[in-house]
């Protein structure tokens, strides 16, 4: 905390696919250990909300996915993720326009002014998913669907059909952002290995303190809200202590600049138009000042939600989502 310790240099880039696989595996082991066999027997079906940064998304704007089949989806997913076998899911996305109203419909009638709904796809490593399902043994047969958290966010932004909007979820280990324009049928979802624990571990490693000490310190003392952003990123005019700017300034600016690049790509290269609002999720109070920093970064576009994504998922149990169990190169069970 005295600012005298030099930051520890990181080593080789981590294998995020391996990290995410182990994290999912430990979560399912905990699930299996928490419930007794008798209680598991009483459960009729299980819905899994998947917090995994290695899931890749695409919409039907990609030329390879305009006429999807199980074969083309498997080939596309394996190429995108550089893996031998892939699990994938898809669902309809977008809207129809007839007259001045937006409505869900089936079929198409271009002469009548209707536009066929588009599709959004998700892909992940089938071997990793199969290993994790195997940990649950016979209980795995009760899993009805595995929904990536990115699709939950996409559903959230789809509730605003007349706007181009975004949802950002900063979880413990990863960040997820979903952007959508239903009017143009364009969707973009990105994940990043940056979460609340990333900031805590940065402080713990740099000052050689325990993660618990770093966690407590970040929750009680604002070390981030005054960090300069963009063109104002001048250490001489920073509004936080110099050691905080030196340690966390470049780290947080890099993350926010990556988000800005994603937004710019969606607005310009995907032709979705300007994003008018960003809804932000996560237990941001654990990093004092982080909410203020995000509000500054997004200007008047940012709003903050207190509803946990898992509760949002529970409330939408009957809503169609991408199901990662719906397709795979080889059987998952």
Strand content: 15-25%
Q: Which structural class do the helices and strands define? A: alpha/beta
Terminal Cα separation, in Å?
A: 50 Å
Q: Which range best describes the helical content: under 10%, 10-25%, 25-40%, 40-55%, 55-70% or over 70%?
A: 25-40%
Would you report the number of β strands?
13
* Rg, alpha carbons: 21 Å
Give the uncertain stretches in residue-range form. Answer: 1-14, 96-115
Shape: globular
Largest sheet: 5 strands, mixed
Arrangement of strands in the largest sheet: 10-9-8-11-12
Order of helices and strands: HHEEHEEEEHEHEEEHHHEHEHE
Put simply, the count of helices is 10
Mean pLDDT: 81
Structural overview:
The strands form four sheets. A five-stranded mixed sheet has the order 10-9-8-11-12, sandwiched between helices. The chain has a four-stranded antiparallel sheet with strand order 2-6-3-13. The protein is of the alpha/beta class. Helix 1 runs parallel beside helix 4 (126-135) and helix 6 (196-207) packs across helix 7. The protein has helices at residues 16-34, 37-42, 70-81, 126-135, 149-157, 196-207, 211-220, 242-269, 290-298, 309-315, and strands at 46-50, 56-59, 86-93, 96-98, 101-103, 118-125, 143-148, 164-170, 175-181, 186-192, 277-281, 302-304, 327-328. Strand 9 (175-181) and strand 10 form a beta hairpin. The termini are far apart. Helices cover 37% and strands 20% of the residues.
List the helices and strands and how they pair.
Blueprint: H1 16-34, H2 37-42, E1 46-50, E2 56-59, H3 70-81, E3 86-93, E4 96-98, E5 101-103, E6 118-125, H4 126-135, E7 143-148, H5 149-157, E8 164-170, E9 175-181, E10 186-192, H6 196-207, H7 211-220, H8 242-269, E11 277-281, H9 290-298, E12 302-304, H10 309-315, E13 327-328
Parallel strand pairs: 1-7, 8-11, 11-12
Antiparallel strand pairs: 2-6, 3-6, 3-13, 4-5, 8-9, 9-10
């Amino acid at each position: 905390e005295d600012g005298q310790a030099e930051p520890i240099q990181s080593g080789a880039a981590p294998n995020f696919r391996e990290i995410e696989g182990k994290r999912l595996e430990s979560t399912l082991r905990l699930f299996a250990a928490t419930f007794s066999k008798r209680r598991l027997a009483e459960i009729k079906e299980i819905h899994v909300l998947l917090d995994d940064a290695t899931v890749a998304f695409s919409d039907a704007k990609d030329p390879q996915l305009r006429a999807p089949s199980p074969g083309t989806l498997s080939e596309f997913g394996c190429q995108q993720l550089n893996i031998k076998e892939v699990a994938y899911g898809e669902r309809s996305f977008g809207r129809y326009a007839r007259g001045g109203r937006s409505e869900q419909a089936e079929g198409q009638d271009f002469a009548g002014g209707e536009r066929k709904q588009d599709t959004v796809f998700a892909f992940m490593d089938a071997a990793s998913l199969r290993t994790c399902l195997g940990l649950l043994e016979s209980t795995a047969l009760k899993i009805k669907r595995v929904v990536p958290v990115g699709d939950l966010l996409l559903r959230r932004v789809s509730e605003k059909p007349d706007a181009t909007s975004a949802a950002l979820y900063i979880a413990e280990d990863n960040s997820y952002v979903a952007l959508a324009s239903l009017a143009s049928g364009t969707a973009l979802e990105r994940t990043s290995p940056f979460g609340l624990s990333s900031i805590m571990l940065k402080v713990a490693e740099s000052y050689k303190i325990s993660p618990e000490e770093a966690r407590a310190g970040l929750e009680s003392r604002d070390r981030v809200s005054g960090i300069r952003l963009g063109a104002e990123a001048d250490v001489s005019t920073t509004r936080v202590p110099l050691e905080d700017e030196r340690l966390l300034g470049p780290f947080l600016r890099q993350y926010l600049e990556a988000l800005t690049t994603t937004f710019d790509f969606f607005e310009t290269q995907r032709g979705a138009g300007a994003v008018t609002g960003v809804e932000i999720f996560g237990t941001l109070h654990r990093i004092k000042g982080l909410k203020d920093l995000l509000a500054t970064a997004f200007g008047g576009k940012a709003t903050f939600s207190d509803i946990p994504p898992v509760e949002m998922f529970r409330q939408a149990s009957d809503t169609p989502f991408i199901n990662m169990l719906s397709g795979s190169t080889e059987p998952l069970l």
